[in-house]
Design a protein that fits this description.
The complex is a heterodimer. Chain A is of the alpha+beta class. Chain A is built from 15 helices and 11 strands. Chain A has 2 domains: 173 residues, no CATH class; 245 residues, no CATH class. Chain A has a 6-stranded mixed barrel with strand order 3-4-9-6-8-7. In chain A, a hairpin with an 8-residue loop joins β3 and β4. The model of chain A has no long low-confidence stretch (mean pLDDT 89). In chain B, α5 packs parallel to α6. The relative contact order of chain B is 0.19. Chain B has a single domain, classed as P-loop containing nucleotide triphosphate hydrolases (Rossmann fold, 3-Layer(aba) Sandwich), CATH 3.40.50. The chains are: A alpha+beta, B alpha/beta. Chains A and B meet through α1, α12 and α13 of A and α1, α2 and α3 of B.
Chain lengths: 437, 233
Amino acid sequence: MFSYYLKLGWLSIHRNPLLSSLMIAAIAVGIGASMTTITVNYTMSSNPIPQKSDQLFYVQLDNWDPNDKREGGFEPPDQMTYLDAMALMKAHKAYRQVASNRSGLVLEPAGEDARPFSVTARNTWADFFPMFDLPFLYGSGWDDAADRNLEKVVVLSKETNERVFGGENSVGRSVRFNGIDFTVVGVLDKYYPVPKFYDVTTGAFDEPEEVYIPFNVALEYKLPRNGNTSCWKKPDGDGLDAFLNSECIWIQFWAQLRNKKEKQEYMDFLNAYVGQQKRLGRFPRPMDNRLSNVMEWMENQKVVDDDARVLLGLSLLFLVVCLLNTIGLLLAKFLGKSTDSSLRRALGASRANLFAQHMVEAGLIGLGGGILGLGLSWLGLQGIKALFGDIVVYLIQLDWVMVLTAIGLAIVSALLAGLYPTWRACRIAPASQLKIQ
Amino acid sequence: MLSLQNISMVYRAGLVETHALRDFSLEVDEGDFVSVTGPSGSGKTTFLNITGLLERFTDGRYFLDGRDVSKLSDAEASAVRNQKIGFIFQSFNLIPDLNLFDNVDVPLRYRGFSAAERKRRIERMLEMVGLASRMKHLPSQLSGGQQQRVAIARALAGEPRFLLADEPTGNLDSHMALSVMELLAEINRNGTTIIMVTHDPALAVMASRNVHILDGRVSDPETDTQLAAAASA
């Protein structure tokens, strides 16, 4: 019977093209508006590394100011000091661990005519690449020995490699940053985690860095840092050494812990470490070490900000308004063909038959609204892109999940809108419409 | 086959009660061709609605093939209508955007027949009413008489126990009306019971039996004659 109802629905839509178009347009506008914001929210809140997000833990140690108490109590800082990060790296208690920070370098291409240009860089450790599953086009990341031996090695992004080496396999070739020659050990393939989970402190939706160099090398050669740095008390003196020994936080620390046991053992280790530091006069606040997996950390950092949620709510309200219009139009349409319904009742259709027939028609209208709404969503997303530029380019992509969501939402919305008109249509007394006289 | 026993039907609108049928009883046997006549407001419409299970009545009992169908659920009443009753309306009531084949198909769809069985029945019925060659035409492409023939084909396609015809020739000219009546008579001769409401005495006499309704009751001709005589005196 479903195919029969589809045929009847299609005929009914054709019978009243203007009314049907109005309904489809009403649903499409609602879907277009809501899917635009749903897409942005969906991308913002998506899991950037689903295959192991429950194994990757952001590490927080609460070394912060005891006088900086907010509503709800103390909140550990979102980055780590150099002292603590290096202590954890040295202890090597996790399956993998990475301390990293963002920086900026000047790349000086070979050739007399080539002009230097700025690149964003990440100072990091060997584990960064296997831990976060970065894809390689050529070569690989560096190894632990390179970290220990201060080897001047670099991993380039695909775009940087194309710009400097024309996209060729540049592994083994030299590239100069800030007057220092580095050897290329790897070239990444396309890599755009959304959100950029491993460092949300510099913008959760920024593009990933263009080059990656060993953390120790960056320090050894006093290469610049340009991430966020926060201090609750001044360093004891000037210069890099004083800064490194201060309570200033500027490093993001991640640990890969493969199971609950490893997580518990690591937490025990952190507690022991902080306990020891307390005895040395650091960590004045109550002990509050935290391990947050990727999605917990995204939630903690409010990657999806409140404005986006409010906008989502408003757009869904708009969809409801569009559906209220659709209800009115469907009511007019269904009651307008009450003679047809009454005739079918006389010929043997039960109320359930009529209910199914009308709901299928409402679903078809929803399908039309969904398809048109997808087009409007695409336009809406292009509008956002035009308004905000490249910084949102990764937030406005309609993937197949969003396409199916739009169609599904439109059909469900139309079915909900169709419930009351269908109920009314099924309640019509057939005798009153058939003019049996 | 069909037995209406002491049926009463009261419409209530606020404090006003209208008795459409009063203690109405009627027996129809298999193979009958019953014409139902009566003045406007006499209760013919209500009688047809109740007989066709399109309306519930206030009091009394209704037996169809020995089964009490007085208080069927909606789904049960729909099934009985679909399987046992064929409707023919004054204004044909064909669905305008379905072709003849699909119009005749409507009751069969709700019957759950296979596609092959439906096709077989539809083609046979359209052939019987002489419209097999036009099964892909829309109703608007047919004359009134042809449309009523399609409606008859639709009513018969499910092989019902009886036909309920509501002024089947009311919208037709005399030539077409005669043609439709001949078709109904032939259908009746082939064994299908027909109950036909009509205003036209000339058509009523073509039935094997006439039932006259007056003030919601089956009228007794002798009493009516006496009352008429008394009134004229």
